[in-house]
Amino acid sequence: MDSVLARALRLDYQPVALSFVAEEPPNSTRPPSATRGCVMPLLARAALGETIVLDRENIPCHSGLIALGFTENFDDGPGGVERLCNFLSRDESYLKTPELARLFLEDLPTLKSDHRYAVFKPLAALGNDEEPLSITFLADPDQLSALVVLANYARETVDNVIIPMGAGCHQIGIYVFRQAVNERPRAVVGLTDISARLFVNRAISDRCLTFSVPWRMYLELEGDVPGSFLERPTWSKLLKRRQKR
Asked: How many CB atoms lie within 10 A of CB 61?
């Protein structure tokens, strides 16, 4: 599928479509099962051109299962909620106390679906008849700035982008699913999870953040490119500056 927005942004990596499906798509890669690891490098592989298929067996961490709607129960993970709260606070110090970690987990959106597979697919490989759940961009500071401006370009409000605390997979998964059911969906900036950044930066630039939108919002942004600042001199100057690096 062609994207006016992707061309205007001069992305270094392909936008990634996330879909839930009942059957493995053709010409896809199903990574082997992993006992530990991170979902985000698999998103990076899709941004580099692969179609990646995930299920309950090959998602490498419990947060990934939560993020992609394969379970909504944190007690399913090793050691349950108590162990996870201690890990987030005492081991990683991402939250000050286990009690705050528990409040964080309670506030996370959840999605329990009966899908068999979650698929990361480059937007360019998406068929015209396919309708994914969301689109994720891997964007550098200039591109992210443009996406934030565009998200507010045709709206009556200026709070149409959020950066919620969470794992990198939460920020491309359950947080975006929550927005998808809203009357006015917002974009979700992610990859602020520094653990995920260590995994992802082995495959892509360390200057990237994610910018994820429900499919409905992606179509809105795509339609707003013509006549916008992306066709004006300021953006052209930024593009020329990037080319000189």
From this structure: 18
- Using CA of residue 208, residue 17, residue 50, residue 69, what is the dihedral sign? positive
In the chain, count H helices and then E strands: 11, 7
The single-letter code of the amino acid at 175 is Y
Count of positions (residues) in the chain? 245
Cα of first residue to Cα of last residue in the chain, in angstroms, is 29
CB-based burial label for 113 (10 Å; 0-12, 13-18, 19+): middle
Residues 57, 123: Cα–Cα separation, whole Å: 25
Per-residue pLDDT of the chain (245 residues; tens, 9 = 90+): 999 999 999 999 999 999 999 999 999 999 998 767 899 999 999 999 999 999 999 998 999 999 999 999 888 778 899 999 999 999 999 999 999 999 999 999 988 888 999 999 999 999 989 999 999 999 999 999 999 999 999 999 999 999 999 999 999 999 999 999 999 999 999 999 999 999 999 899 999 999 999 999 999 999 999 999 999 999 999 999 887 76
Q: Which tokens belong to 217?
A: 């919002």
